[in-house]
Amino acid sequence: MATLYSLFATLLFYFQLLLFVFCVLVASAAGLAASPLLALVRRRPAANWIAAQVLRVLAEQVLGVAVDVDGTEHLAHARVQPCIIVANHQSLLDVLWLACVLPHRTVVVANMFIAHLPVLGWFMRLAGNLFVRQGDKLSIKALFDGALRSLEHDRVSVVLFPEGRRNGGSESLLEFKKGAFYLAYCTHAPIIPIAVQSTRALYSWSDRRFCRNAVIRMRVLPPIATQSLAEEDIPALISSTRNDIQKACIALSSPAHANQQ
Description:
The protein is 50% helix and 15% strand. The protein is α/β, with parallel strands linked by helices. It has a 7-stranded mixed sheet with strand order 1-9-6-2-5-3-4, sandwiched between helices. Helix 1 runs antiparallel to helix 2, helix 2 crosses helix 4 and helix 7 runs parallel beside helix 8. The longest helix has 39 residues. The mean pLDDT is 93.
């Protein structure tokens, strides 16, 4: 009986995973279709917002995954000026919560392998998103130059994951890399930190778990002004931002917070 239950749970996991891929492909196709027209009016990043709206609806209606967002008022800064949005990085579920908070004119930094995927990669390239190959100094330099151009020339916000890779849903964040913060020093763009609860209980590849009727809880923290940021202040800024996100993640993942919802 236990073996039968395990087999059924595994089949449900792969079925939910297929639904996830379907949702991402449909949202990407919507963004891909909109990209040529938006490129003509020099609004390419708006394709990201269109794809995000499609994915947000599909996540709720098809996957059964909702997102509860606290602090959305802090995203208003990204409507009036380019911002640097930083968040903890956990799993493929990150794309679901990101779809719910992505500002209208925003690009996302992603791993280079995504750029070569059919449909999703095509869309992300056309929409002006940025890619990096981990450990490749030339790629990292190109990413920094591209992000600088996005903020200063294109006047769009940039989403970065300062951990550099997925932390596996752990409440203990990886050490933050300095790229996003050095970018803030160079551009004086405000930093908007985002904390997302540990999603390990909702999704785990190793445990073959992908829950339906689930809620991802997240919090947008107050923006951090960087107009007077000096280069020597960057290490302290990295530490304080990581600590703020860490504390918020732990609070969001606590049973007490879940019971308040």
